[in-house]
Write a structure and sequence with these properties.
CATH class of the largest domain: Alpha Beta
Strand content: 5-15%
Bound molecules: phosphoric acid mono(formamide)ester, norvaline
Radius of gyration: 19 Å
CATH superfamily of the largest domain: Aspartate/ornithine carbamoyltransferase
Largest sheet: 5 strands, parallel
Number of strands: 9
CATH architecture of the largest domain: 3-Layer(aba) Sandwich
Shape: globular
Number of helices: 11
CATH topology of the largest domain: Rossmann fold
Number of domains: 2
Order of helices and strands: HEHEHEHEHEHEEHEHHEHH
Helix content: 25-40%
C-alpha cells in the first residue's frame, strides 16, 4: 500500500455516508457471527499497536479483544513505558511503529498529535480519543441507534453538558449522516464550531435550558462534566454543570421510544441520575458492547476494503 492509499479514521468525517452504511451492515454481520461462535480470522498475522496517553477500559479491551477475534494480535503501549514519554518526536515514533505493525490506534491529548503521527505513518491510524474527538465511540453509538431504532437520518439527538470530544463528534456525525443535534451547555462551555470541525451550524441548535433541548429528542446523551486532562477544572465545572444532569423529567419530554446513551465511565448523581442510566430507556451496555463489533468492522475495512461476504 502506498502512503496516498492509506485511510485513517482520525475524525468522524474521514469516512462518508456510504462508508458508514457499509460499516453498519458489516458490524451487524460480524456481531451475528461472533454470537454464533463462528471463527472469522481475516486479519491473521496482522498486528495492531495501541498507544495510550490516557486511561481506558472499553477502548483498550474492545480493540485488543477485537483484533484477537479477527485472528490478529494487539500490542499495548503506554507513554510511561515508551520513548514517547521521554520526548521521542511523534514523527519518529510514527516512522518506526508503522514499519512494524499493520494498523495503529492512538488515545492522546491534542488532535494535532494524532494528525502528526498519521502524516508520517505507513499504515492506517485510528483515533481512540483525543481532547477534540472520539469517533470510534460515536460510530458505536450510531450503530446502536440503527440496530435498535433504524435509520438516524432526520432524527434529533439531545446533547446535554460539556461541549467536549463526544459533543464535537456527534456534531460532525450530524453533518455526515444528516440528523440534528440539540445542544445545551452551561454558559462559558458552548460549542466552538471550528474546534468541532464543522462546516456550518445547519445541523445543530443551541438551547440555554437542557429541558428544552430534550423536548421531542429521539436520543438523549451526555458525558462527564470533566474530561480526562481537564481535572484542574473539576471544582469550577461541578458548580457550572449542576443543572445539566439528565433526569427522568428530561427523558419524559423526549420523544416516545427515545433512548439514553452515555459513552461511559459515568458519574451517577452528576451528569445523569441513577434512575435514568439504570432505567428502561438506557442502552449504555449495548452501546459499550458495540464498540467491539463496530471497531472490528472498521479495522477490517481499513485493512482489507469492502468485503462482500
Ligand atoms: N467510552 C470509552 O472510550 O471508555 P474508556 O475510556 O474506558 O476507553
Ligand atoms: N469526554 C470523556 C470521554 C471518556 C471516554 C473524556 O475525554 O474523558
Amino acid at each position: 500500500m502506498t502512503k496516498t492509499e492509506i485511510r485513517h479514521f482520525l475524525r468522524f468525517r474521514d469516512l462518508d455516508r456510504a462508508e458508514f452504511e457499509y460499516l453498519f451492515g458489516r458490524a451487524r454481520i460480524i456481531k451475528e457471527r461472533f454470537k454464533r461462535y463462528e471463527k472469522y480470522h481475516p486479519l491473521g498475522d496482522r498486528t495492531l499497536a495501541m498507544i495510550f496517553e490516557k486511561a481506558s477500559t472499553r477502548t483498550r479491551l474492545s480493540f485488543e479483544a477485537g483484533m484477537h477475534q479477527l485472528g490478529g494480535a494487539a500490542i499495548y503501549l503506554n507513554t510511561r513505558d515508551t520513548q514517547l514519554g521521554r520526548g521521542e518526536p511523534v514523527e519518529d515514533a510514527a516512522e518506526v511503529i508503522s514499519r512494524m505493525v499493520d494498523i495503529v490506534m492512538i488515545r492522546t491529548f491534542e488532535q494535532s498529535i494524532i494528525e502528526r503521527f498519521a502524516s508520517r505513518s505507513r499504515v492506517p491510524v485510528i483515533n481512540g480519543l483525543t481532547n477534540e474527538y472520539h469517533p470510534c465511540q460515536v460510530l458505536a453509538d450510531i450503530y446502536t441507534y440503527v440496530e435498535q431504532r433504524g435509520d438516524i437520518r432526520g432524527k434529533t439527538v439531545a446533547w446535554i453538558g460539556d461541549s467536549n470530544n463526544m459533543c464535537n463528534t456527534w456534531l460532525q456525525a450530524a453533518e455526515v449522516l444528516d440528523f440534528n443535534v440539540h445542544v445545551s451547555t452551561p454558559q462559558g462551555y458552548e460549542v466552538e464550531p471550528e474546534r468541532a470541525g464543522l462546516y456550518g451550524t445547519a445541523h445543530f441548535e443551541s438551547f440555554a435550558d437542557p429541558m428544552a433541548a430534550c423536548r421531542g429528542a429521539d436520543l438523549v446523551t451526555t458525558d462527564v462534566w470533566t474530561s480526562m486532562g481537564f481535572e484542574a477544572e473539576n471544582d469550577a465545572r461541578a458548580k457550572a454543570f449542576a443543572d445539566w444532569q439528565v433526569d427522568a423529567d428530561m427523558m419524559a419530554v423526549a420523544a416516545k421510544g427515545a433512548v439514553f446513551m452515555h459513552c461511559l465511565p459515568a458519574h451517577r448523581g452528576e451528569e445523569v441520575t441513577a434512575e435514568v442510566i439504570d432505567g428502561p430507556q438506557s442502552v449504555v451496555w449495548d452501546e459499550a458492547e458495540n464498540r467491539l463489533h463496530t471497531q472490528k468492522a472498521l479495522m477490517e475495512y481499513l485493512l482489507l476494503g469492502r468485503i462482500e461476504k
